[in-house]
Amino acid sequence: MQKYYKPSRFVVIFVLMGLLLAIYMTTLYKLQLFNSGADANAAYLADGTSKTQTLTANRGEILDRNGVPLVSSSPVYNVTISRPAFQGRDDINTVILDLIHTAIDNDVAYTDTFPVTPGAPFAYVLDMSDTQRKYLNAYLDYCHWSPDISASDLIVKMKERYGIDYTMNISDARLVIGVRYELELRAVIYMNSYVFASAIDIDFITLLEEKRYPGVNIETSAKRVYHTTYAAHLLGYIGSMSQEEYNNTYKARGYSYSAQVGKSGAEVVYEQELHGTDGSQTVTTADDGTVLNVETTTAPIPGKNVFLSVDIGLQAATEDSLTAQIDVINADPERADKDRVTGGAAVVTDVNTGEVLALASYPSYDPSTLFTDYADLVQNPSQPLYNRAIKGTYNPGSTFKMVTGLAGLRTGTITPSTVIFDGGRFMKYATTNPPFIPQCWIYPTTHAGHGNETVVTALRDSCNVFFYTVGDEVGQPALAQAAADFGLGSPTGIELPEALGARPTQENKQRLLKTDDIWYAANTVLSAIGQDINYYTPVQLAKYAATIASGGTKYPLTILNSIRSADFTSVVDQPAHQPEGTVPGNEYIKYLQEGMKLVASEGSASSAFKKFFIPVAAKTGTVQSSNTMGNSLLNNGVLVCYAPADNPQIAISVVVEKGTSGSTITQIAKDIMSYYFRNKPDVTVAQDNTLLP
């Protein structure tokens, strides 16, 4: 029997079908309208290869104490090559060669560290670095080739290994080999991913996008931008980490091996604060290396900003004056080329906080061109990369006499009114074998001495015989202890790696002179005037001067003003500037201060400071001694000072290798003080040459 459907049932069915069709069309329309771009590669994503990449956090800025930017980061674009994307492709050599020629034609430098000359007859490059040698040996071992293989034989083997056709000319073959070598090195040893070209411009990016090379990607990174040519040693630089650094330090911090890290200066001291926390993204690529999708999985957290204690204006004034005065000394026509000044340093500190306001080392370099100039800088005999301010150790000469004075006063060996007669020579050991008769500096000219001296006038006149006598009577242990109490020969607290120097002890004598010789009375006598076994850094001398200026209160030195959040809205860390102690016998320091004031107004520094608009306390030193840099025996100039003399704010140390004398370099400190006090809003200054009351 035939079955009939009621009309009402058909109506219901058609209505339902219509609704379903409407829903389908609406959904399709939405997909086409809103997701046409997002789902263009949807069909490929399931078959693509996904990998996680590091999103490098923006590195924090370095600024001076006033917020003047010194170092910041700027985004750059790099060309990278993915080795896996070329697996199974027959055109890898053709693609690489075309990429290389595209770079060459557009004046884009690319990375090729393969240490073989670019053209036949092939040979290993003469300036092969230790790193290049290490990598080449690892590569040869990986390929099971002899480490003694010639360059030409190596080229033949590599052409065969990489399937480079004989129809390709030999020069082009060498170009391709260079890049293939770089790519395979990443499989041989654990090292950074291969960046073909760095910091490329938008025109080259556009060109690469047009050519669509498989396996060739554009990635962003950041480069450090220097906003000053000053403070190079203080700021430091960043670079690639070594495998040892990665394993020992940065792996545990979650760094990627390709991360750029601080290598020197503030960049390494505050690495953890500046670095930030890297994020990650998932990148999906097709078999030909085409990027199908990029998804951020963890957003990076930018680094904090570091405000240094230095004033970049004062830093510039310090470096400029140091350079200018050295140029004046070297311009002396009687000075032979071999006797030219090759180095110096100056340090400025805040007496009341220990903050380093300026730290200069001569010669210096331009931090923005460090890597370009590196080979020349390394070969420069004056060693511009060497930070003399914190690592150079020098005899202090007569600037040490305040140490001897305090040792005598606090042990009761002398009183402030004790008078010692200077006849020009110290005769106590004249009858020993051999005779030891050290002279006062004035004796060769006058054949006489300074006559009667107290500790204050002896400082004014820099009387050697007075301090020979005091040093001999207090003895070596008391001298060494007084030096230690002033912070000489000890860490200053500065965050940078510093040399410790050496106080006058038998242990240091034997260590420095590589001898088993004992300590003699002559060692004590000479040490009392800052000669013999006395070696200190300019930062130690600056702290020493600041300690005298403060009446014996010692502050640890610091290069940090504050650490602030990435958006600059909050202070994350700030030094407390707490004293580390007081010099025993500090009640006698006022006599040392009085003597230093007389040096500036009547003594060896008076030509610079007698009519200066700020009262100054100073002590100069002249040292005929080789320093730890190994220079010839010529007089080094040394100076320590502070100002204002009656209400100290800043302390300064200056050392100039082969600088003739301490009085010769007082102009450097004068220039520093002029800049500092003329740029302080709370200081009223008089005109130069106005007599002070």
Tell me briefly what this model is.
This protein is α+β, with helices and mostly antiparallel strands and 693 residues long.
Structure commentary:
- It comes from Sporobacter termitidis DSM 10068.
- The chain crosses the membrane at residues 12-31.
- With 693 residues, the protein is of the alpha+beta class.
- It contains 25 helices and 21 strands.
- The strands form six sheets. Strands 2, 3, 4, 5, 10, 16 and 17 form a seven-stranded mixed β-sheet that branches. It has a five-stranded antiparallel β-sheet with strand order 12-11-21-20-19.
- Strand 2 and strand 3 form a beta hairpin.
- The chain is elongated and about 95 Å long.
- The model is unreliable at 1-45, 626-633 and 688-693 (pLDDT under 50).
Number of helical regions: 25
**For the CA atoms, what is the radius of gyration?**
35 Å
Mean pLDDT: 88
Helical content, roughly? Answer: 25-40%
Strand fraction band?
Answer: 15-25%
* CATH homologous superfamily grouping of the domain at 309-385 and 547-565 and 579-680: DD-peptidase/beta-lactamase superfamily
Q: Can you name the CATH architecture of the domain at 309-385 and 547-565 and 579-680? A: 3-Layer(aba) Sandwich
Number of strands: 21
Indicate the structural class. alpha+beta
Could you give the distance between the termini?
Answer: 135 Å
* CATH topology label of the domain at 309-385 and 547-565 and 579-680: Beta-lactamase
List unreliable stretches of 5+ residues: 1-45, 626-633, 688-693
Main beta sheet, described? 7 strands, mixed
CATH class term of the domain at 309-385 and 547-565 and 579-680: Alpha Beta
Shape: elongated
